[in-house]
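User: Could you write out the 3D structure of this protein bound to zinc ion? I've included everything you need below.
Assistant: Certainly. Input first, then the structure.
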Amino acid sequence: MSIKNKHPKRIIKIIIILCALFSISFLYIKINPFFGGNPDIVSKKRIIHSENYDGTRFKNLLPTQTIEKGNIMRILTVAKSQLFPSPTKNPKGKIKSEKLEVKAIHNGDFVWLGHSTILFKTNDKFIITDPIFYNAAPVPFIEKPFEVTNKVLTKDLPYIDIVLISHDHYDHLDYHTIKEIASKVGLFYVPLGIKGHLQRWGVPDKKIIEFDWYDEIKLEDMKFVFTPSRHSSGRSINDKCKTLWGSWVIISPDIKIYFSGDGGYSNEFTKIGEMFNGFDIAFMECGAYDKLWKNVHMFPEETAQAIIDIHAKIAVPIHWGKFDLSTHKWNESPVRLLKSMNKYNNEQKKENKIIITTPKINEIINLNHLPQNTWWNNKE
Ligand SMILES: [Zn+2]
């Protein structure tokens, strides 16, 4: 065989291998329900007519680059930190969590289950936000949750009247979790476009209600409003921003709650704070930040500012304590948030000070019980 003929053969081989890999990936995404489904005709109509949709994708209220372009060195740093985390980056051993006591949850109680999952009861209804009980990736061996001493499974949950979803990223919407809880859920309130995912996973249409920004619904004495955040969506290779993302306002007769979902800092927090005249308690994204995606995830100092902007009396940092999704240490975000808030509070009159609470995973809190222990700082 001549040397001349060798190279074209090698190139053909590489092309065949690449085509095979592409086909396998394509089939995996098409066949595997994990990636979700497409909007039905009703959803599509609403999406097309949404003023937040540009004809192809949903868009943020501010021009937003989700990943800073051209920063190759930072991309490599992030990849290294994810693939080879330093020995001090993640919890050593199991995180000490409480035992989930569903029977002890009364109206006005909240339980942080880690990351952005909050189980709470108000007006005799059980509500859960972004329920995640497995790993945050389409394959089982990556983005595994940190181990905890008292692990909660979906079978431990009570009947859930309403599931609130903020967006369809893997760490907020999980196929296995939804499959397991769907039969004991009354209603799913989801951003526009996400109905298609739930339908593919067997959730009946009548249980799913889709929301555009500032859409609201009344349920008995409660009101739910889907509010904007500065973020993105997507579970597959060609579905970026095809479904909407956002935050939730829950107005119950006794309490006003804000759940931030994911998002970068923007002046929308001030708008939401003024629109609803502040909140009794806010669950605010505070974790998995990096300068590479600074427009779509807040640094803890920005979370502190957002808490001030939204006029929250009490705030709980979320989006931490469960997954290693960035470059920083697992417990860095509460340290930085508290430092920022303390600085603010030191300059405020007593009545204007904002309380930050960082409950243990599965610990019950309420407006009168806001634990101040810094369990995450435990050096043992
Ligand atoms: Zn997200």
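Residues 1-31 form one domain.
User: Perfect, thank you.
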